[in-house]
Amino acid sequence: MARRSMRAEISDAALERFHTRGYSAAGVKDITDAAGVPKGSFYNHFASKEAMGVEALHRYAATQRFAVLADDSLPPVERIRRHFTFLRAQQEERGYTRGCLYGNFAAEIADHSELIRAELAAGFDEWVAGIAEAIIQAQRAGTVRATLDPAVTARFILNAWEGTLLGARAARTGESFDAFFQLVFEVLLTA
After folding, report:
1. Cα 1 to Cα 83: distance, rounded to the nearest angstrom
2. Is residue 109 part of a domain?
C-alpha cells in the first residue's frame, strides 16, 4: 500500500495539534514529529506556519457538514438543527474539549496574523450565508417569522454557537447546548 503524501501527513498532524493544543502551542517541530516526517520537509510544502494554519482551517471546515444547510430534501429549519446537532455531538464525543477551530483561532491568533484573520472572516461569512439562506427559505415556507433579518439572525446564531462552545467547555456539560437549542429552535426560528 502506498504511503499518503507527505503534505497530507503534515496537514493532518497540524489540524490535530492546532485543535487540541492551540495555534501557539503547536510548533512546526511538534507537527512534523506527529506526522513522522523531518522538520525540513514542512517548508517544502508550506511557506509558513500561518499558511499551514489556513490549510488547517480548510481541512476542518470540510469535516463540519456545512452541506446539510443546503440540503433541499430537508425542511430549512431542520437543516439548521441537524447541522448544529452534528456539531454538538462532536463536542460531546470529545468530552466538551477542543471547541471550534474557527472560534479558537479567532480568540487566539486573529489579532496577530492578518492572513489567518482574513481566512476566519471569510469562513464565518460563508457559514453565516448558509444559515441565512436556510432562514430565507424557511420564511418563504412560512415556518420562520418574515420580520427577522436573515443575515443578522444567522450572524447572531453563529455568534451564540461560538459562545455556547465556550460555556460547554468551561462547565464540561451540555447545559449550554440545551439553552442554545431551546432559544434558537423554540423561540427565534419559529413562525
Report:
1. 35
2. yes
**Would residue 96 be called left, alpha or beta, if left means φ above 0 and alpha means ψ between -120 and 50 degrees?**
left
- The answer to the question of residue 52 being in a domain is yes
In a shared domain, residues 78 and 53: no
Expressed as residue numbers, the domain containing 148 is 66-188
145 CB-side CA count, 13 A: 11
- The reply to whether 152 and 176 lie within a common domain is yes
**Per-residue tens of pLDDT for the chain, all 191 residues:** 555 688 999 999 999 999 999 999 999 999 999 999 999 889 999 999 999 999 999 999 999 999 999 999 999 999 999 999 999 999 999 999 999 999 999 999 999 999 999 999 999 999 999 999 999 999 999 999 999 999 999 999 999 999 999 999 999 999 999 999 999 999 999 99
19: Cα within 13 Å, side-chain hemisphere:
25
